[in-house]
């Protein structure tokens, strides 16, 4: 009888242990370090979750994230196995593989990491890469879309002024009349947050 009770207790403990491990796996947290050029949308896609989930979990307002920022992302059991290796490599290295097509992801990430130092701050010689990376990461809108807008509005002339409307700078913003490239980017992000792409008739 004692042996039977001992066996039942041991079996129950093992079952409880497996159940507990399953719960931990189902609610595993991942930490992701934001790289230059990242957007909330791209990070959500990478972890098979939603923009709203990423922003709510990390208290992000207006899709605004910064390179080097650490994000906590809850992953489900179905995606934790796929993302575990990617999460580890992202926090320790700038070249990470996030999907089954690892060669493509690695090529993209390596390319991004090589421009990290030139796109996180404006140096005067990196106008295009700085502006596009800032706008994409801060608004979630692709760099190619911003390139089209800026080319159309100012042809990449940062200090041009429209004599008839008074619009100023790269984005031909009606709400500013002067300012550095950094100030123009900040003003464009604020305008996007207030009006969306409608501010540029898109």
From TrEMBL:
Name of the top EC class for this enzyme: hydrolase
Keyword Mitochondrion attached: no
Gene3D superfamilies for this protein: 1.10.530.10, LysM domain
Keyword Metal-binding recorded: no
Chain residue ranges for the region called Disordered: 75-123
InterPro entries listed in its UniProt record: LysM (IPR018392), LysM_dom_sf (IPR036779), Lysozyme-like_dom_sf (IPR023346), Transglycosylase_SLT_dom_1 (IPR008258)
Keywords: Hydrolase, Signal
GO molecular function: hydrolase activity
N-terminal signal peptide: 1-28
Compositionally biased tracts (Low complexity): 75-121
SUPFAM superfamilies: LysM domain, Lysozyme-like
Entry EC no(s): 3.4.-.-
Protein name listed in UniProt: N-acetylmuramoyl-L-alanine amidase sle1
Organism: Lactiplantibacillus plantarum
């Amino acid at each position: 009888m004692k042996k039977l009770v001992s066996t039942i207790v041991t079996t129950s403990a093992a079952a409880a242990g497996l159940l507990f491990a399953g719960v931990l796996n189902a609610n595993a947290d991942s930490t992701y370090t934001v790289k230059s050029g990242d957007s909330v949308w791209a990070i959500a896609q990478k972890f098979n979750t939603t923009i709203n989930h990423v922003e709510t979990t990390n208290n992000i307002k207006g899709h605004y994230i910064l390179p080097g920022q650490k994000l906590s992302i809850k992953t489900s059991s179905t995606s934790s196995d796929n993302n575990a290796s990617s999460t580890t490599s992202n926090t320790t290295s700038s070249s990470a593989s996030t999907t089954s097509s690892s060669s493509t992801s690695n090529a993209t990430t390596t390319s991004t990491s090589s421009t990290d130092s030139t796109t996180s701050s404006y140096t005067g010689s990196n106008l295009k890469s700085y502006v596009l990376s800032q706008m994409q990461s801060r608004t979630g809108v692709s760099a190619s879309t911003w390139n089209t807008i800026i080319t159309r509005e100012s042809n990449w002339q940062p200090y041009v002024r429209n004599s008839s409307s008074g619009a100023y700078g790269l984005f031909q913003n009606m709400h500013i009349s002067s300012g550095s490239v950094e100030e123009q980017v900040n003003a464009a992000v604020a305008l996007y947050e207030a009006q969306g792409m409608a501010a540029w008739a898109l």
